[in-house]
Amino acid sequence: MAKINNHLVIMAGGVGSRFWPMSTAEQPKQFIDVLGIGKSLLQLTVERFKTIVSAENIWVVTNKTYADTVAEQLPDMPQDHILCEPCRRNTAPCIAYVSWRIKSKDPKANIVISPSDHIVLDVAEFRRVVSDCLKFTADSDAIVTLGMKPTRPETGYGYIEANLSANSLRNKGIFRVDSFREKPDLETAKQYISKNNYFWNSGIFIWNVSTIVNAFRMYQPGISKIFEGLLPVYGTEKEQEEIDRLFPECENISVDYAIMEKADEIFVCPADFGWSDLGTWGSLQQQTKKDLYGNACIGEDINLFETHNCMIHTTQEKKVVIQGLDGYIVAENNNTLLICKLSEEQRIKQFAGDDK
What we know:
With 356 residues, the chain is an alpha/beta fold.
């Protein structure tokens, strides 16, 4: 049963340019049925929080361009909980805005922040972990981040170094954070995973609303002043106008830099529930069921001959026949076809003409 003060905030403003041509600025990946199962990544995100947070306590922060898409895909959530950023300013201003907005409505709110484009394979374990963390933050001034147990030396994720000798007295599965580490090179990533106290930074945060608001007041007074000053207009027709005017003044800064690396009461909950940040075609291939030859196929009628280790996403084609490829991405969307080596996928922004 979802607790009355539990709130879910989904950050859904990204453009997902590394997933071109499936993901475009008009329709980014979080709104697409990436896995070919009839639900978008955004809808899957909401679904896995179903028993933890009730529909009226769901909030989505997105770009104005996508507000109608969010409303269409999530008809059960209150439409005034779709908060629109007038411009992109990274995660700290986004989180500050929604935190003060929730505080104006529910001063006892306990919040989980989640990106909109991740996948989770073991939903039951995910729900157990998140519920435990929400119990932990409900009556403490702790900030908890979920750390994923690494399965490989991944260079595409940031890492959290945990102090495994300093677990919390109230929850033996939650530990103090020693440091946050940037995305490493391969050698550093190998060193991290040879130790047992380094975890992938999932970007999923849990805290109560007083904790995060106080952290912004202390460590980001400029950002705090803007959203504190808007308390009289939250929930009124003036809100969007004032956000449009003041949001662009916020510093472009991530919540990791703005708060996490400065605050004292930072904890990590190591977890293992089949998590992936679907950032690239390669990460989708890793998470998709493969045939005997290592090919991951999403689409109706895909016929492969002498083809190995490919990621094929052709949901709009009636029939696809591929021969002789090894280690390629084949993806089409709206009259655009991409054929690209998986090993060269970091160049996709360039191929899409989006490498500025």
